[in-house]
Design brief:
This protein is an alpha/beta fold. The protein contains 16 helices and six strands. It has two domains: about 10-65; about 145-335, Uracil-DNA Glycosylase, subunit E (3-Layer(aba) Sandwich), CATH 3.40.470. Bound molecules: iron/sulfur cluster. Iron/sulfur cluster binds near residues 163, 178 and 236.
């Protein structure tokens, strides 16, 4: 049986031979030798095409078809692979204006920005600077209360008798009445104010004016009645024009206050306003700084808060008084 190659005529054989020689010259003989039989046994179309083509057939697609690497279509774009990193928002350009919501919570810019050198000294990861401690002020020394000679068997009635028609300081010259005190002689809570005002001077009772009504409301808000507590002042005569009592006036009158406190022996003394705090506790710090704190006062406790008259002048600060009275209530309940 004749092979496919035997069926080719001599001219075709010569052409194939010449082609192989040409491939040999190109250095690709081995490739086509291994494929010679395939080429020889390929279809007659191959022979016909080969016979009719010129020398440019080296680049013939039909010959190179098995190895058409150049035609192998590469993907035009790498398929997207899912990133292992979590999605992050696109960085905001440095010049981008901040969002309105962020701006609303930003601190207002300072007029004089910190120098760059200062900023570099504070790395972003630096721990926040601890807030400066604000220890509670301590009494500058023993209060006048500590220096008062204790009177054995002292009573409120005896103290009032000793006060008499007092003229120990200049306040007696302008007073209408001595305002000794009001309330329960066995009270657990004693309020100490600054001094009588106009209404108090007229009636001879402490805290009966507008400030007194507010104090009464606060007392009742704690679940107590006015008659359950004891109310008095640092000085017992009204200072002219409701001015702050002067030192000599406080020194002359305060011993009677201390005797009242010592006689009652309350669980808690509430100082209303800075003059009361200075007199009872000897603390000269601002009332807004020390208010709402408990201090030792002999064998009992004392708390400082603002005067009700301050709240009448600053109604928005009423919560201060309410907060401090809540502490008083909790203290008395033993909370
Ligand atoms: S303020 Fe006190 S010390 Fe001065 S006159 Fe009146 S009761 Fe006396």
């Amino acid at each position: 049986m004749r092979s496919m190659a035997d069926r080719f005529d001599d001219s075709l054989r010569k052409k194939i031979s010449d082609r192989l020689s040409f491939y040999d010259d190109l250095g690709i003989r081995l490739f086509y030798t291994t494929r010679q039989s395939a080429l020889v046994e390929s279809s007659a179309a191959f022979a016909a095409t080969s016979a009719s083509e010129s020398s440019a057939e080296v680049s013939s697609p039909s010959v190179h078809q098995p190895v058409r690497y150049e035609d192998s279509p590469l993907p035009k774009a790498m398929p997207k692979t899912k990133s292992l990193k979590p999605d992050v928002p696109a960085p905001v350009p440095a010049t981008a204006p901040p969002a309105a919501r962020t701006t609303a919570y930003m601190m207002p810019p300072t007029k004089s920005p910190a120098p760059a050198s200062v900023s570099r000294r504070m790395p972003a990861s630096a721990p926040p600077v601890a807030a400066k401690s604000n220890p509670l002020p301590t009494p500058s020394g023993p209060s006048l209360f500590e220096a008062v000679n204790k009177i054995a068997g002292d009573t409120l009635l005896k103290i009032r008798d000793d006060l008499g028609d007092c003229k120990r300081c200049k306040l007696h010259q302008t007073r209408t009445n001595i305002v000794f005190a009001d309330g329960n002689p066995k009270a657990e809570l004693v309020f100490v104010g600054e001094g009588p005002g106009h209404d108090e001077d007229v009636q001879g009772l402490p805290f009966v004016g507008r400030a007194g009504k507010l104090l009464t409301q606060m007392i009742e808000a704690m679940g107590l009645q006015r008659q359950d507590v004891y109310i008095c002042n640092v000085v017992k005569c009204r200072p002219p024009e409701n001015r702050t009592p002067e030192k000599d006036e406080v020194d002359a009158c305060s011993p009677f206050l201390y005797r009242q406190i010592e006689s009652i022996k309350p669980r808690l003394i509430c100082c209303l306003g800075a003059p009361a705090v200075r007199t009872v506790l000897g603390i000269k710090e601002g009332i807004t700084k020390i208010r709402g704190q408990f201090y030792n006062f002999g064998s009992t406790k004392a708390l400082a808060t603002v005067h009700p008259a301050y709240i009448l002048r600053n109604p928005r600060e009423e919560k201060i008084l309410r907060e401090d009275f809540e502490k008083i209530r909790d203290f008395l309940k033993g909370a």
